[in-house]
Design brief:
alpha+beta
């Protein structure tokens, strides 16, 4: 008759084997580190290549003198998600820092839209370049709840650009859509 030894006694007696092949373990760790560095480098090169492809995009306009003194229609504090080619929500524009996510302070005035981004390039969209505003749920790979993203379409050079913003208070988005679309109709009417 065989005696059954309780499992907890067997588990107490067994120990892990000592690592005897340190060179193989170190080689695997170094190989993994090199692989991760290579993938990061390739991603960075892809970002730079995309920027070179979009180098025909003109420099972004700066805020005009006296804009801060003018009447402000709306202000918004929130996040800038990215800019894409209009109508193509995955075609991110990286030239001139437009692909960099950041905090944002938006100010809409009669002259246009002032976009102040701490840690990234600020820019200004003149009122006659604003095309439309809408509520959307996705831009540049970022997907939010329905209507959670304020997307402003504007012209820069010969290209139409969609820029995505998310306010700290999402209830403000509707007022921005109405104001920009109204401003666009007003500037179209005076241009004729």
């Amino acid at each position: 008759m065989t005696t059954l030894t309780p499992l907890y006694l067997l588990a107490a007696d067994q120990k892990s084997a000592e690592v005897t092949d340190w060179s193989a373990r170190i080689s695997w760790v170094l190989g993994l580190a090199v692989f991760i560095a290579l993938v990061y480098w390739l991603m960075r090169q892809g970002w730079k290549w995309r920027g070179q492809l979009q180098s025909d995009l003109p420099e972004l306009p700066a805020t005009p003198e006296g804009f801060a003194d003018g009447e402000k229609l709306l202000t918004l504090s929130g996040r800038y998600h990215a800019s894409t080619t209009a109508g193509q929500w995955l075609d991110r524009i990286v030239a001139h820092g437009l692909g960099t996510r950041s905090r944002v302070e938006l100010t809409l005035g009669e002259q246009g839209l002032d976009v102040v981004r701490p840690g990234a390039a600020d820019f200004f969209v003149p009122a006659d370049a604003l095309r439309e505003a809408r509520l959307d749920k996705a831009l540049a790979g970022k997907v939010l709840p329905e209507g959670g993203l304020l997307v402003i379409t504007w012209a820069h050079g010969d290209k139409l650009i969609d820029s995505g913003f998310r306010s700290d208070h999402a209830a403000e988005h509707r007022a921005w859509v109405d104001a920009i679309n109204h401003l666009n109709r007003t500037t179209e009417g005076t241009a004729r």
